[in-house]
Amino acid sequence: MEPDAVGLRCDLTSCHEFDFLPIKCHCNKVFCRYHISPDKHTCASPDGPSAGHAPSVKRQRCALGDCEKPSLESAISQEANVETKPTSSAACPKCLLSFCIDHRHPDLHVCTGLQEQESNEKKDAQDILARHFSNPSSYTPVAVRRTIKPPTDPRKLAQMQKVTLMKMRHSATAGDPRDKSSTVPVNERLHIKARLEVTGMPVQERVLWFRKSVVTGRALDLISANLGVPSSCPTPLCLLEKPVLDPSSCSPLQNDLLLSEQVEDTCTIVLSTLPHSGSS
Fold first, then answer.
1. The pLDDT value given to residue 255
2. Which residues contact 64 (CB under 8 A, 6 or more apart)?
3. Cβ–Cβ contacts within 10 Å for residue 98, how many?
4. How is the beta sheet containing 251-252 ordered, strand by strand?
5. Which terminus of the chain faces fewer neighbouring Cβ atoms within 10 Å, N or C?
């Protein structure tokens, strides 16, 4: 007798390996998982119990479609000719189907129960989010809602503008398509943020650079082209400077003066309608 009488040896003479989970065949012999198939041990009764043998238990095959191995515990009683339900030790705890020893784990047979569980967990997470954030589209993170106020200290303001200028130099495009970065030195460029605020048109911004020798009227036409304002726009437009320390107060720029004489690097220039035209 084997230690603690747990398991049996495979009845195949060439194997005779000790198996803790032996499976009984129709021929009333027990085999290991490698030789349980009738064609692996030259089964005397491949289709059922042979004559002279007592009715035995017909093992149901593994629930995995292309697997030919028998399941562990699910069986059909030939005496009562009634299918018995898989026991809890053999059935998959997720989908409740019975598999062979090689496919018994949920992650080895594409378990539908496991997929359903994951779907339910995802739905539960969505329900929790819905309860705590009833309208996620209206929720704005604090970091977005928080407005960064420019420092009043001249030294800190100068440092902030220096950092801003460095970032703008990397992202700015030439306002005049005839200008090339390779031909215009950096110290001869004026970097601005152009913002479109015209009634009936979507608000948009672009970071541009111009030659410091450009006239404001010429810059007005170039900014309009860069922001997609049609040349046939019937409303007179102008450029307004938006100060860093007081963005609410915008002053119109004079078209006959150089742009660099009226604004500084990193400033925001608003393309808008003329104040006297009745539009804001």
1. 93
2. 99, 100, 103, 109
3. 24
4. 173-174, 204-211, 189-196, 267-273, 237-242, 251-252
5. N
In the 8-state DSSP scheme, what is residue 150?
P
pLDDT digits (tens, 9 = 90+) for 78-113: 333 444 444 445 577 777 787 777 777 777 777 776
For residue 209, with 0-12 CB atoms within 10 Å meaning exposed, 13-18 middle and 19 or more buried, which class applies? buried
Ranges of beta strands (E only) in 6-137 are: 8-9, 18-19, 23-24, 30-31, 57-61, 70-77, 82-83
Return the structure tokens found at 215. Answer: 């006239």
The length of the chain is 280
End-to-end CA distance of the chain: 99
Measured in whole angstroms, the distance separating CA 77 from the mean position of its chain's CA atoms is: 51
- Cα–Cα distance measured from residue 50 to residue 27, given in angstroms and rounded to the nearest whole number: 7
Residues of the chain with pLDDT under 50: 1-3, 49-57, 75-88, 136, 142-145, 277-280
Token pair of 99 as six digits = 């598999």
* Helix (H) or strand (E) segment spanning residue 11: none
Domain map (residue ranges) of the chain: 148-277
Give, in words, the CATH class of 148-277: alpha beta
Does the predicted model carry a pTM greater than 0.85?
no
